Amino acid sequence: MTTLRRRLIPYFLLGPGLIWLILFFVIPIGYMGELSLRTGSLETGFQFDWAWSNFSDSVSRFDTQFGRSFVYAGSATVIALLIAYPLAYAIAFRGGRWKTALLFAVMAPFFTTYLIRTIAWGTILGDTGIVVDTLRFFGILSDDGRLLQTTAAVIAGLTYNFLPFMVLPIYASLERIDTRLIEAAKDLYSSARTAFWRVTLPLSAPGIVAGTLLTFIPAAGDYINAEFLGSTQQSMIGNAIQSLYLNQRDYPTAAALSFVLLAAILIAVFVYIRFAGSESLMGEEAKKA
Amino acid sequence: MEAASVTAAATPRRSLPGRAWKWLREHAIVIYAAFAIAYMLIPIIVIGVFSFNDPAGKFNYTWQGFSLDSWKDPFGLSALTESFLTSLRLAALSTLGATILGTLIALALVRYEFFGRRTANFLIVIPMATPEVVIGAALLSMFLVYFGAGILGFTSLLIAHIMFSISFVVVVVRSRLIGFDRSLEEAARDLGASPLHTFRLVTLPLMMPGIVAAALLAFALSIDDFVISNFNAGTAITFPLYIYGAAQRGIPVEIYVLATMLFVVTVAAMVLTVWQQRRAERMAEVLAEPEEEPYAGTPAVPPVPGAAGG
Fold first, then answer.
1. What ranges in B67-203 are assigned the alpha helix state H?
2. How many residue contacts between A and B have a Cβ separation below 8 Å?
3. What is the distance in angstroms between the Cα of A221 and the nearest Cα belonging to chain B?
4. Chain B CB within 8 Å of residue A242 CB
């Protein structure tokens, strides 16, 4: 009796939470799948009839937005990595007693509302803002050139908004490194550069993999930056899904697009993890948990 | 960071430019980091500064002049205040729900071996790997197909917010539980405490920092959520949804004031939590010192790394 009770305990603990996730995450995905195979209009109602053509139609209709989403999210991820790695490195190894304060500064954007942050970027990059003035002064931007409603502005916004997601995992993995390993490499006559490339960088790989995923995934589905910092020329797949669902109410097409986006991201993630080595992503967790 | 050393043909002479170059090389990464930090803080500073703006029209986009008007009466716009209160209520309830459900899951995953663990783990991870727009769209699909648009409102928002917060709570609490000294619980049991007593008096207090960090994260996620709320709000209006609507009509300065207030309060709460944790750790060290002497070198309480941060 007691062993049976003990065996059941984990299921009692898991039960409520997992049921919540199944009811409000797994099953909704199923409903989205069902919705994506319907045809009809808002007036006549949507009937289910295995309309697989919804998928090919919606993808060919919005292929530019799909392409844009992946290119923008990819660029933002690369730029964020270039900014975040040296920053995380400096905090972990040169932070000293300022470490906690610096981590606070990295997390600070989280404490202001996402939308207002993006609108504030609109102010900064605006036509009368200091950035445009400076760029025009140096002739980098022509006198009627602008930053708002350009691809650069959208990518800059995406980079900014998801930067903490890149810094924090990289910092965590750098922080865990046993510095004696780096010293050992130097004792064995490795230059600082070689020690970095052969010891520090590989050991921080889990953080890089986690950070790039945490940046790329939300960036690929984002529509706020494209809406506030871009024009229709920069609209991403998230903008299409939002407008189809909430404005045009073309639910089957919108559901099909969401499904394709989810599938594309999951495939990209799996390929990436294969390529980067699942060990580097799950290694630490898998061993402990 | 190491790129600076590529061109560094170390000169034995210590001329002034040579020394300057050496200093620059050594501090290149710190300077780079300072710029990066500045980049992260600029929009926040802009928000703070523009909360004192005296805008000419409806749009608070360009600096017009200093004014305290909006700070004197930040709750003057009743629709804005209403949305702010809705957000606070929603965040409080969803934090409560998600923290309880998530903590229970974390306990099961760390403490027990059972059939279906991998599936459970997968179920926790997958919502975090799904773009918000897909989560929002999927939930809306279910609500529309199954219940019709009538169900959309505060309840559907609460359901959604608890749903997307659970995974984050699990991750944070689990990381705290993994570094957990089980011998303390065994000691309690040896001294005759019942399992329930042990949990209440030993396990729960030790888990508390992790739970608090998880709750703070859940609260922040909820109060800031736009995308999923945008899909499932129906007629309910949260703070981010109000801002989104306002952005089309013109942004009142009060939004910047409330955002600044929210920022200051959250930072204060975080600083207080960290400070409290540090003080507790220091106290533990002081208390442990006399007993520590016989076994010099072994700290009585292993320092616990701050569990904050997603």
1. 69-72, 78-111, 117-128, 132-142, 154-178, 183-190, 195-198
2. 257
3. 5
4. yes
Give the chain A residue nearest B129 (alpha carbons).
A217
CB contact under 8 A, B145 and A116: no
Q: Which residues pair with B66 in a beta bridge?
A: B53
* Interface test with chain B among A116, A131, A229, A288, by most B beta carbons within 10 Å: A116
- Which residue of B30, B61, B309 is in closest CB contact with A94? B30
Q: Is A38 helix (H, G, I), strand (E, B) or coil?
A: strand
Domain ranges of chain B: 2-50, 70-295
pLDDT, tens digit (0-9, with 9 covering 90-100), for A147-193: 788 888 899 999 999 999 899 889 888 888 887 888 888 888 878 78
CA distance A249 to chain B (A): 11
CB distance from A7 to chain B under 8 Å?
A: yes
Lowest mean pLDDT: which of B71-80, B170-179, B200-209, B244-253?
B71-80
CATH for B70-295 (1.10.3720.10, 3.50.50.60, 3.30.40.10, 1.10.287.3510): 1.10.3720.10
Count of residues in chain A: 289
Where does residue A231 rank: exposed (0-12), middle (13-18), buried (19+ CB within 10 A)? middle
- In this prediction the pTM is 0.83
Q: Cβ(A219)–Cβ(A72) under 8 Å?
A: yes
Q: Taking the CB of residue B25, how many other CB atoms lie within 10 A of it?
A: 14
What six digits make up the tokens of B9?
């043909």
Side-chain half-sphere CA neighbours of A184 within 13 A: 8
Q: Where are the domains of chain A?
A: 63-288
Query: Interface pTM (ipTM) of the complex?
Result: 0.85
Superfamily of domain A63-288 in CATH is MetI-like (1.10.3720.10)
Do A115 and B112 lie within an 8 Å CB cutoff? Answer: no
Helix axes A205-221, B132-142, angle to 10 degrees: 50
Q: Which of A221-225, A251-255, B64-68, B228-232 has the lowest mean pLDDT?
A: B64-68
Compute the distance between CA of residue A246 and CA of residue A71 in angstroms, rounded to an integer: 25
Q: Which residue of A has its CA nearest to B127?
A: A25
B140 CB neighbours in chain A (<8 A) are 245
